[in-house]
């Protein structure tokens, strides 16, 4: 009886604590890629819950049915051979569970690695997102602007983030819009996403990268297409152009607020893709050698 009340108290306590918590961002998706991943999480939770309930039910049944009895000390239970049905269930069900979760996982990976469903016919907005200790640089080649620690995107349009790093490996993550993807030196990875509605979202580096890792965050603002176009015009009318000297200062370790520039660092420090793939693009001396060579 005491055990029963202890278990009930534990369940009620957990219920009260969980109802007081804010919803997890990953379970509050605002885009098709994030929704796919949230669905996988819910499917995994439901599968594990079903398994747990069945196992606990079997455990309780065994404890009650085969509990100690008042048999004599010399009692010997009858010899029972293996049961093929029980053994088949014991082996077969885990295999089926693994196959099911495997299919769900592989299918979701293909979905999130492709252009979001429903946006295949639209031209994506390409944004180069590069990390340095401990900040994020966003370059818009089409709009010819650059931002630091803040990224603005239009709603209902596919976005392609081209990820790379000017320092250690980082992980680009916007929980409500897309899953994590690594940004590495000397190569570019691509992250696809789309946002369903305007709003402000949190983005961060999800991979430990030194003492400033905890504050390696950025703000994501989703605007209507009209407001996004106006924002681009405002940056061109108010911001200063980014220079190689200014960019090299931004790469120095430390934290910064939000910054906005016209132009992009891609002009003098291109992303490590195509002919630049494999180069140590984080080395300023190599940038100078590359520029000097191109002038010749």
Describe the structure in your own words.
The protein is α+β, with helices and mostly antiparallel strands. The chain has two domains: 26-56 and 85-114; 125-295, Cupredoxins -  blue copper proteins (Immunoglobulin-like), CATH 2.60.40.420. The chain has six helices and twelve strands. The protein has helices at residues 2-19, 32-65, 84-112, 225-238, 244-250, 284-295; strands spanning 125-132, 135-140, 145-148, 150-154, 159-165, 170-174, 178-183, 189-193, 199-205, 217-223, 240-241, 259-262. Strands 8-5-1-2-3-12-11 form a seven-stranded mixed sheet. The protein has a five-stranded mixed sheet with strand order 4-10-9-6-7. Helix 2 (32-65) runs antiparallel to helix 3. The longest helix is centred in the first third of the chain and has 34 residues, at 32-65. It is elongated, with a radius of gyration of 27 Å. The model is unreliable at 15-22 and 281-296 (pLDDT under 50).
What are the SSEs and their pairings?
Elements: H1 2-19, H2 32-65, H3 84-112, E1 125-132, E2 135-140, E3 145-148, E4 150-154, E5 159-165, E6 170-174, E7 178-183, E8 189-193, E9 199-205, E10 217-223, H4 225-238, E11 240-241, H5 244-250, E12 259-262, H6 284-295
Parallel strand pairs: 1-5, 4-10, 11-12
Antiparallel strand pairs: 1-2, 2-3, 3-12, 5-8, 6-7, 6-9, 9-10
């Amino acid at each position: 009886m005491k055990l029963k009340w202890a278990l009930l108290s534990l369940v009620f306590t957990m219920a009260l604590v969980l109802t007081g918590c804010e919803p997890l961002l990953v379970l509050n998706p605002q885009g098709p890629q994030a929704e796919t991943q949230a669905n996988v999480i819910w499917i995994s939770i439901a599968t594990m819950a079903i398994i747990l309930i069945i196992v606990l039910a079997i455990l309780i049944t065994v404890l009650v049915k085969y509990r100690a009895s008042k048999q004599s000390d010399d009692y010997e239970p009858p010899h029972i051979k293996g049961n093929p049905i029980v053994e088949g269930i014991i082996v077969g069900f885990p295999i089926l569970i693994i196959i099911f979760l495997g299919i769900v996982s592989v299918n979701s990976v293909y979905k999130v690695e492709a252009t979001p469903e429903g946006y295949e016919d639209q031209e994506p907005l390409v944004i180069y997102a590069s990390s340095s200790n401990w900040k994020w640089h966003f370059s818009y080649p089409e709009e010819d602007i650059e931002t630091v620690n803040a990224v603005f995107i239009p709603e209902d349009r596919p976005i392609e983030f081209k990820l790379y790093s000017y320092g250690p490996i980082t992980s680009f993550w916007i929980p409500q819009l897309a899953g994590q993807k690594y940004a590495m030196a000397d190569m570019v990875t691509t992250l696809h996403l789309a946002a369903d509605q305007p709003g402000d979202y949190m983005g961060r580096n999800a991979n430990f990268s030194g003492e400033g890792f905890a504050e390696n965050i950025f703000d994501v603002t989703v605007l209507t297409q009209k407001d996004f176009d106006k924002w681009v015009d405002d940056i061109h009318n108010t911001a200063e152009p980014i220079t190689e000297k200014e960019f090299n200062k931004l790469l120095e370790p430390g934290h910064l607020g939000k910054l906005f520039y016209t132009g992009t660092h891609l002009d003098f420090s291109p992303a490590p893709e195509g002919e630049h793939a494999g180069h140590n693009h984080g080395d300023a001396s190599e940038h100078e050698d590359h520029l000097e060579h191109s002038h010749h």
